[in-house]
Specification:
This protein is α/β, with parallel strands linked by helices. Helices cover 24% and strands 22% of the residues.
Length: 316
Amino acid sequence: MPPYSPMLAVTFLGTSAARPTVERNVSALALVREGETLLFECGEGTQRQMLRYGVSFALSEIFFTHFHADHFLGVIGLIRTLGLQGREEPLRLYGPKGGKHVLGQAISLGVERVPFPIEVIEVKPGAIMRDAGSGMRDAYEIHVFATEHGGGSVGYALREHERPGRFDPEKARAAGVPEGPLWGKLQRGETVGLTDGRTVTSEGIVGPRRPGRLVVFTGDTRPCAAVVDAAQGADLLIHEATFGEEEKDRAKETGHSTAREAAQVALAAKAKRLVLSHVSARYSISAEELVKEAREVFRETTVAKDGMTVEVPFTA
């Protein structure tokens, strides 16, 4: 009786830095876990990308890493559309300091009244969002960590709770526990009583608890220790890589990373997989140069394309 494994996947809606190109829209990605959709960034045109790539509008939270225009302007149109669709459910917007001012202006732009409640929540590094108010976040948390892009920029990490250990059906049968609800109780660590008066514990039938999955999204940032710490053992690290090594000085000047620098972060964090995003327009058609530079440091690297979906499986 193997445990149920909830689906966890990321769809890249926009992977271009600063401005859209023919091939790439500006920053946005959707994370879907067991039917729940979370949106990270909402650059210009995000709602059209959601339609194009089949991402549900039935979301209740949007997370912003900072408030440069290419990361949040799309929220204006998305809120307008949600209102026209007759939405009544609340929408929560998270972002660093300044969010209430910037997003407050965006919410009110071009309309007299938004027909559904919107809450803007300013977050700081170290904050943990445990309760979404929807009952969905009982199996994971969203952690906020510092990044280096100026203006109090932050990144986000989705960290699942530990899972029960592996259940051994043969050992359960050998202990005289009949298949059915009692197996489920054992897997949850409960002690069960049998009809012959014996009690059976999960010890020896259920293995040690196993880690949940960890997905880390940096937003725009220089390579930094805070990201390495947040991404320790990450199943998926999504790190910006605006430039190649030939423009490493420009990356430093503008608060961005090169592909090689992102790979060095992934290596230091012992991440399992690295996906590069937020690439300069010069790499819009082909980002093979970025892939090559990064893989010299960290083999399990790919560069995101608009519409690409990455599934995050359990590794244990």
